[in-house]
Amino acid sequence: xxNPIYTFLLSLFLFSCSKDRNHxxxxxxxxxxxxxxxxxxxxxxxxxxxxxxxxxxxxxxxxNNPNPIGTIKNFKxxxxxxxxxxxxxxxxRTFQGLSSDEVKKLASNVNKLINEIALSSELKxxxxxxxxCDWTKSTKAxxxxxxxxxxxxxxxKLSATLRLHQVKFKERxxxxxxxxxxxxxxxxxNPSEVQDKNSILDLDLAKDYLQNLNDYPIQLxxxxxxxxxxxxxxxxxxxxxxxxxxxxxxxxxxxxxKGNGIYEVTDDFFLxxxxxxxxxxxxxxxxxxxxxxxxxxxxxxxxxxxxxxxFYHLDEKFTQNYNLxxxx
Length: 328
Fold this sequence. Notes:
This protein is an alpha/beta fold and 328 residues long. It has 2 domains: 20-227 and 286-327, TIM Barrel (Alpha-Beta Barrel), CATH 3.20.20.80; 228-285, no CATH class. The chain has 9 helices and 16 strands. An 8-stranded parallel β-barrel has the order 1-2-4-5-6-7-8-16. A hairpin with a 2-residue loop joins strand 2 and strand 3. It is globular.
């Protein structure tokens, strides 16, 4: 006869191991012209989304000076009942060659523009700012100084994105001076350099780069992809990338479906302002719900604490292809 205490402890252990992880869902909003339709509003409500990470603008070097580009237009904070988190993408080259004073000035200018956009959009309060930058060893000192300065002058919580290589090579590329980051589980490959893999998310590659994810010393949330794009190759092997593209965009076009998302152009035509000639190849890459579920399962094995999932990005064109409740 089994010891009742042993049976109780065993059942408690099995229950704790099988307990579902908690993954509240948030979204990125990455379109330059702000507009949300009723389907997107209903999705946000039904998923009980708390946070929208909204891209306010990018920063890049222009005439050797950092300048904002692609500032969001027509943003109205009243459209969604969520916490908006201003998000700024900054190119890595922006930080190259800057003095400490120039880095601090950049932080001041970024903070000022964020507040100006918030004011014009009637975003009366926000508690966090997120910075998206694929920093490298050569820029980490300036980037980390920028983060410290922005956190100080904004008086806000500050988070940043984290790429896979920055996890695997953290000793070389450093750990930012932050309390929270978002692991980007997408864009694992350069779409211009791979033919036989999915450049949006190659799970085998992600697993290799994230073997020591459990040792990363900062609290992490996770960003997962629900977008697709087209990689167009011409007769000379040159490649163009068309963002926000799906196989539905090829319906009625002069193409032959070769399978596995590969299409061959059979006659000249325009596609998203690109002129395509007969013989061009089109590779449409997307991520299945099954791959996302497998990715989440792997991350659960590496991250001991519950984390939020941020989907990139809020757009009915892509959200309609998934049952996102399955990914909580």
